[in-house]
Request: fold
Amino acid sequence: MQGAVGFAERAGHILLSARFWRGTLATAVFLLVWEAVARAGLVRVPAPSSALVTFNDLMRDPSFWFSWYLSTRRVFAGFLAAMLVGIPLGLGMAVSRILYGIVFPVFEVLRPIPPLAWVPAAIIFWPTQELSIMFVTFLGAFYTVVINVIDGAQTIDLRYYQAARSMGSSSWDIFRRIILPGTVPSIVVGATVGIGIAWAVVVAAEMISGGGSVGSMGGASGGGLGFFIWNSYVGGSYNQIVVGMISIGIAGYISSALLRKLGELVTPWLHEQ
Amino acid sequence: MNYEPPRGSPIADARAPALAAQGGCKGAIRIANVVKIYGSEGAGVRAVDDCTFHVPAGKITVVVGPSGCGKTTLLNAIAGFHSITSGTIHLDDALLCGPGRPKADPGPDRIVVFQNGALFPWKTIVENVAFGPIVQGRLSRKAAFEKARMMLAETGLHNLETNYPGEISSGMRRRVEIARALMNDPKVLLLDEPYRALDSLTKSVMHEALLETFDRNRVTIFFITHDLEEAIFLGHHVVIMTTRPCRPKKILTVDIPHPRDYSVLTAKRFREYLDETVEAVHEEALKAFAAGERER
Ligand SMILES: Nc1ncnc2c1ncn2[C@@H]1O[C@H](COP(=O)(O)OP(=O)(O)OP(=O)(O)O)[C@@H](O)[C@H]1O
Ligand SMILES: [Mg+2]
Reply:
């Protein structure tokens, strides 16, 4: 938007801000303490430095990146499906009392079931393991998206409806020009939280469902960062476990940051210049 | 028509046609025997009771009264945001609501400006102002935006076009909202304490801007406020309401010619009107307070 100058300026701002340095310092202290504890042999967790060495090796291992790719693909597939189904459903439930009356009881019974409890059923139901993992990921994000959409639509101030009505809006105008934009901020919140849950779910689902062929690039099923961690555990490679865990942290962080940025783009009125 | 003039009101029935005939002004509201009970007939809150008065076309009528007496209820009934229990409300010769038709249809001939403002936060100022003609299909998008820009320029707000409402001061927001209302060529502007949240300095600027707008458009204005100085400064007529249930206690005709400016505030006649209003309102406020004590 603003080009390179704007970016450099912003980067400069970040580097100068106290918040940035506090964060960096805290991370550094955390790593140092961990390193010391690990070297002193107090815990059997590998030290960050040795994990870093392992990471360096893994960087050149395509199957490690393939795990990243598999998990990311599942997260985004499940997440996008949750958005595609959840947003219209939530909006529909918010505007139609009938639809709300039909769907909500079912929804409230299914919602407390943790997505991971669905894994066995999903594997039986869906033709491929890939689809079943994606389905479980979808569930993880779905409830949060729907709840946020309904809540967002229902908390739009009555005055906006009244103003729109008195200026001659049809029901369709009200939906398109009031309900939809009025719900966007909640959709963004739901999406940001939802993708975090999707990451949590995908990793666990991958561990449960097993991998079959983690090493092979062409593997039709299995793999992913969750399986990578599990496999490292089974193989006794503790350094890889740490690398796998940190990878998930980073992937989740990047996804949320991406969604926040996207969210800012679709809600320009909440971000004053 | 079964309209009865309020007893002892200076806006007598005989004068109404004369006012309506003046310069072909449109937008006279006749409120007759309006009752509004919230909740069930037996146990509900009687917010408006047998309320009768006249809002003459092309004039500013200000309604004052104790907090919670039912002013907003009356305004919402005119706007068509909710039903009335009985009575009739006419806009010019058309029945807005009455027997067999408890709720008026909201429409662009009566636009409300809310106390807390209702500019759409997700639309820029110019998009907000252009909203009415676009949804009514009266103007193309392009023409509506053009007219909105003109309207904003007229009120000295053109530099705010691309801002969002959240980015401008509350005083500016109120002015934009009035501009948005006027885009619909309404017969009546219904203002519900639009300046309540503003500091007195901003308020005085708003008053002059509103009067200027009024002089330009000659739209009927129905204005609710708690601020008695504001009421007399703006109003051709000031309707003082009783405490709940709400009905006119006294209707004052402010005989100070428009266009008015702030020098009026120090005029002897202005002070006299103010004293008269204060006395009537204070009496009702005391009653309201006593009623509140009893309810406790
Ligand atoms: N939806 C509602 N249901 C039940 N009672 C209501 C409702 N709206 C308002 N009331 C009651 O009706 C009475 C009149 O309310 P209203 O808002 O019209 O008063 P008001 O004169 O505008 O007050 P204020 O000066 O504080 O704005 C109040 O006692 C209020 O509690
Ligand atoms: Mg009110």
Remarks:
- Confidence is low (pLDDT under 50) at residues 1-22 of chain B.
